[in-house]
Design goal:
about 140 residues, alpha+beta, Double Stranded RNA Binding Domain, 2 domains, 4-stranded antiparallel sheet, 4 helices, elongated
Length: about 140
């Protein structure tokens, strides 16, 4: 598990903004500090997942002392430590049973998208999970 520092910014009449010195461009905000903390976790996790999918190398976490000494972050109202569990999840081989015709359709759809069978199945499952979570939160 890696721990990265999030900088909390607050201007009058604004939400609590979050930025990450180790991940320029990864920003989020929350109405209060608790929501900002939750949003920081989500934003950083998604940002790192995107970097991994793009084959980018993750930076080593900066030390809090270095960040606090950096004049670019002098306006910080707080510093948060954000845990990123399983930044590189372990891949597990599974054995499933699928009707032959369905398997042929899966393979054809995967080829059409330039994906492997495994990648196609994982993406399809992730999309179904996200759709289910979206429906549940409405």
């Amino acid at each position: 598990m890696a721990n990265y520092i999030a900088i909390v910014h607050k201007d009058p009449k604004s939400d609590f903004g979050i930025s990450f010195p180790d991940f320029p461009g990864c920003i989020t905000a929350g109405k209060d500090i608790d929501e900002a903390k939750d949003m920081a976790q989500e934003a950083l996790t998604l940002h790192i997942q995107g970097m991994i999918e793009d084959g980018e190398k993750l930076p080593a976490p900066s030390k809090l002392e270095e960040i606090m000494a950096d004049p670019d972050f002098a306006d910080a109202v707080a510093y948060l430590v954000v845990d990123v569990p399983d930044a590189r999840p372990r891949t597990v081989r599974v054995n499933i049973t699928v009707p032959e015709m369905t398997l042929k359709q899966i393979d054809a759809a995967a080829r059409k998208r330039g994906m492997s069978r495994s990648s196609f199945l994982v993406h399809a499952a992730q999309n179904a999970i996200q759709a289910n979570q979206s429906e549940a939160s409405v």
